[in-house]
Amino acid sequence: QAQLVESGGGLVQAGGSLRLSCAASGRTFSNYAIAWFRQAPGKEREFVAAVARSGGSTPYADSVKGRFTISRDNSKNVVYLQMNSLKPEDTAVYYCAADLWGMGQRAASAYETWGQGTQVTVSL
Q1: pLDDT tens digits in sequence order for the chain, 124 residues long
Q2: Cβ neighbours, 10 Å, residue 83
C-alpha cells in the first residue's frame, strides 16, 4: 500500500503561485490514481483535481479549472499540483489521496490512502 507525503504548502499573497508535491512510497505508484482534496476551516473536504494512472485523464473542480494543473511523474513517484492565480478562498489544508487501480474519481470515498496534508494560506 502506498504511503503519501505532501509538501510545498505555505503563505502566499493573492495572485501568487505555489506548487504542491505528493511523494509516494512503494514500487507500484503507477497503479494508483492520485487526487488532491482540500478542507477549509468549518467546511467539508472537497475535490480539487485528480490524475489517472497513466496521466491521461485529469478532472478538475470548477473552482480551480484554468488556474490549477495536476501532473504526475511515475519515474519519481510524485504528483504535482501547480496552483496559479491563488485566491483567499483557496486557503485550506490540501491532501493527496491514492486509489489503487482507480480512474481518477471525484468522490473522496474512492480513495483508500491519504497523506497528512499541507497548509496553504492565501492572504489579500
Answers
A1: 779 999 999 999 999 999 999 999 977 899 999 999 999 999 999 999 999 998 888 999 999 999 999 999 999 999 999 999 999 999 999 999 999 998 899 999 999 999 999 999 999 9
A2: 27
